[in-house]
From TrEMBL:
<dbReference type="GO" id="GO:0006207">
    <property type="term" value="P:'de novo' pyrimidine nucleobase biosynthetic process"/>
</dbReference>
<protein>
    <recommendedName>
        <fullName>dihydroorotase</fullName>
        <ecNumber>3.5.2.3</ecNumber>
    </recommendedName>
</protein>
<dbReference type="InterPro" id="IPR002195">
    <property type="entry name" value="Dihydroorotase_CS"/>
</dbReference>
<dbReference type="GO" id="GO:0004151">
    <property type="term" value="F:dihydroorotase activity"/>
</dbReference>
<keyword id="KW-0862">Zinc</keyword>
<dbReference type="InterPro" id="IPR032466">
    <property type="entry name" value="Metal_Hydrolase"/>
</dbReference>
<dbReference type="Pfam" id="PF04909">
    <property type="entry name" value="Amidohydro_2"/>
</dbReference>
<comment type="pathway">
    <text>Pyrimidine metabolism; UMP biosynthesis via de novo pathway; (S)-dihydroorotate from bicarbonate: step 3/3.</text>
</comment>
<dbReference type="GO" id="GO:0046872">
    <property type="term" value="F:metal ion binding"/>
</dbReference>
<dbReference type="GO" id="GO:0005737">
    <property type="term" value="C:cytoplasm"/>
</dbReference>
<feature type="domain" description="Amidohydrolase-related">
    <location>
        <begin position="86"/>
        <end position="190"/>
    </location>
</feature>
<comment type="similarity">
    <text>Belongs to the metallo-dependent hydrolases superfamily. DHOase family. Class II DHOase subfamily.</text>
</comment>
<keyword id="KW-0665">Pyrimidine biosynthesis</keyword>
<dbReference type="InterPro" id="IPR004721">
    <property type="entry name" value="DHOdimr"/>
</dbReference>
<keyword id="KW-0479">Metal-binding</keyword>
<dbReference type="GO" id="GO:0044205">
    <property type="term" value="P:'de novo' UMP biosynthetic process"/>
</dbReference>
<keyword id="KW-0378">Hydrolase</keyword>
Length: 373
């Protein structure tokens, strides 16, 4: 497919199987923008304040989101914590709106201070998830080592943001070995090693790839606070591998934006910069644009970029893994990408101006997305 020669591209609606919609005013700003990004189904992360740890909380959150965007399907998740047990997993499965449980290593990203310190502690929970068909979503990073770790002389590498994903991968293999029927997703893969680890696992393991990791490297993250996310973007070689994973169409990877809005003050204010890139309103366009960039750079060939590979990555594989196929008749609904000179704005604001979010890729020219129904 010669993307450069196309002025329009019609696709099934995108499924975003990893996104953050926050709460209160930020939720009210971001949730209506899901369909602008070409998405009709989203898997919602539970790391709110306080985190979504109970079924009743997830159901209530689902109701709020559905009221804001009734034509979007919301799949909910629980935050893995010590109070979660086999009975709660059974209750979650009965809810029909909760599809998985998110494992955050303690302290690795936004609102994860109550995350996991000992994975084996949760083996009874994983067993129950395996039995009830819930998905385990992994934030695949080890906790960064304290400064004292850098003085080690035993050859053990200290954990930093650059190797945290690679250092976590043995945990993925260990979990898959212990629970071979448990569906596991290595979320927001940022490295070649992460891609290879998922490929080495059986069919119950998959991985998500974000739009911003298809565009960014560590140099971008260091040079622009609005490109800083967790996991951080890695090397140019890692970026190329992620782009190639889409066109190789192995069936192991699908789209999860990890769109993570933060108020502008949290990104550029005093103290630690909030980790997250806001991509939701341009999700589909950024992915297609990254493939176009890959062709221009010579990372992939025009003939490798097929309509089927794009459709599979954006729409088919994620729905299949989550067992949420499109309903009868919905195959007639499409999205259309067109070259209209749309530019990602410098800021997205709430109607009352109290919330301002700087989107990833601000100033970038992208395809415009419209709906055909």
């Amino acid at each position: 497919m010669n993307l450069k020669s196309l002025s329009t591209l019609e696709l099934p609606p995108t499924g975003d199987f990893h996104c953050h919609l926050r709460q209160e005013k930020m939720m009210e700003l971001c949730t209506p923008l899901i369909k602008k990004g070409g998405c009709d189904i989203v898997y919602v992360m539970p790391n709110l304040q306080p985190p979504i740890t109970q079924v009743s909380q997830a159901v209530s959150y689902h109701e709020k989101l559905s009221q804001i965007a009734p034509d979007v399907t919301f799949l909910m998740s629980l935050f893995l914590h010590p109070g979660l047990d086999a009975a709660a997993i059974a209750e979650a499965a009965r809810s029909k709106v909760i599809y998985g449980v998110k494992l955050y290593p303690a302290g690795v990203t936004t609102n994860s201070h109550d995350g996991v310190l000992d994975i084996e502690q949760y083996y009874p929970v994983f067993k129950a998830m395996e039995e009830h068909g819930l998905i385990l979503n992994l934030h695949g990073e080890m906790i960064s080592s304290p400064p004292a770790e850098f003085a080690k002389t035993d050859g053990t590498a200290a954990v930093t943001v650059l190797n945290a994903e690679r250092m976590f991968l043995p945990q993925l293999h260990k979990l898959h070995s212990a629970f071979p029927k448990l569906r596991i997703i290595l979320e927001h893969i940022s490295t070649r090693e992460g891609l290879a680890a998922v490929q080495q696992c059986g069919p119950t393991v998959a991985g998500t790839i974000t739009a911003h990791h298809l565009w960014s490297t560590i140099d971008d993250a260091c040079g622009d606070i609005f490109s800083f996310c967790k996991p951080v973007a890695k090397t140019p070689e890692d970026r190329v591998a992620l782009v190639r994973a889409i066109v190789e169409d192995s069936g192991k990877f699908f789209f999860g934006s990890d769109s993570a809005p933060h108020p502008i003050q949290s990104k550029k204010g005093e103290g630690r910069t909030a980790a997250g890139c806001f991509t939701q309103p341009w999700a589909t366009a950024l992915v297609v644009g990254a493939l176009e960039e890959g062709i221009e750079q010579g990372w992939i060939k025009e003939e490798e970029v097929t309509y089927k590979a794009i459709e599979n990555f954006l729409s088919v594989y994620g729905r299949a893994f989550y067992k949420t196929p499109r309903s009868a008749g919905s195959e007639k609904v499409k999205i259309r990408l067109e070259r209209k000179g749309e530019i990602i704005p410098e800021v997205v604001k709430s109607q009352d101006g109290t919330i301002e979010v700087v989107p990833y890729g601000r100033g970038k020219k992208v395809w415009s997305t419209t709906w055909i129904e």
